[in-house]
């Protein structure tokens, strides 16, 4: 009798393990499909992402990339960072949507701006750097590094240099501005870039922002859009409003051109 009880108990344990395993691997998704869909339709962003993933991966439902893209879009529009990234990849590949690099860049860029590591890495690839170069080379020429033009004497410049060489980040930034505009010294864009770089490497957001423009225009340094975007992103991550606006402008431009 005790032997039979032990067998029954073991069978129940095995059944419980099997059930929990099914739950853990999405095997029970079909059972909850109605609730997930209802929540997604009511605007729940997590449910929208879950439903999209179920359709994209074919878990609990027949795989349907078109339906997946529809729900990823709804979640992405509510700021769901992973939905934005996956939707960007779907537009890049043409999975469930027409292939569209403008839409792909828009969504991958939005995910990157929220700190998505794979999105940020992807935007540094040759494809997207070339794409960005083509889209931004007509950028307004009126834009230039922030202007903060103090009247300085040669003695003040020498004092800034002394402090800057000791690692004073404010002095390094000020020298960048001074050499950029030629205040108290002959204008020297290479020297300006060198001092902005030293300050930027110490996380001075204004210096990073200015470097973004200098690399973008090729002022004092070889034109390099990858470096330009890198410095704009670093400045934006530190809360620089101007850098954020530049990145948002690029994303909106890509989105606008994608709708044409």
Descriptive report:
- It is a single chain.
- The chain is mainly alpha-helical and about 260 residues long.
- The protein has 2 domains: about 30-125, Tetratricopeptide repeat domain (Serine Threonine Protein Phosphatase 5, Tetratricopeptide repeat), CATH 1.25.40; about 155-260, Alpha Horseshoe (Serine Threonine Protein Phosphatase 5, Tetratricopeptide repeat).
- The chain is built from 14 helices and no strands.
- It has helices at about 1-25, 30-40, 45-55, 65-75, 80-95, 100-115, 115-125, 125-135, 155-165, 170-180, 190-200, 205-215, 225-235, 240-260.
- Helix 13 (about 225-235) crosses helix 14 (about 240-260).
- The longest helix is centred in the N-terminal third of the chain and has 23 residues, at about 1-25.
- The chain is elongated, with a radius of gyration of 27 Å.
- The termini are far apart.
Question: What keywords describe this structure?
Answer:
Serine Threonine Protein Phosphatase 5, Tetratricopeptide repeat, 260 residues, mainly alpha, elongated, 2 domains
Give the structure's gist in a few sentences.
The protein has 260 residues and is mainly alpha-helical.
Q: What is the chain-wise order of helices and strands?
A: HHHHHHHHHHHHHH
Q: In the CATH hierarchy, what is the architecture of the largest domain at level 2?
A: Alpha Horseshoe
Largest sheet: none
Fraction of residues in H or I helices: over 70%
The top-level CATH class of the largest domain is Mainly Alpha
| Beta strand % | under 5%
| Rg on CA atoms, Å | 27 Å
Average residue pLDDT: 79
Count of separate structural domains: 2
Molecular shape: elongated
The CATH homology group name of the largest domain: Tetratricopeptide repeat domain
Q: What is the CATH topology descriptor of the largest domain?
A: Serine Threonine Protein Phosphatase 5, Tetratricopeptide repeat
Total strand count, please? 0
Q: What class, by secondary structure content?
A: mainly alpha
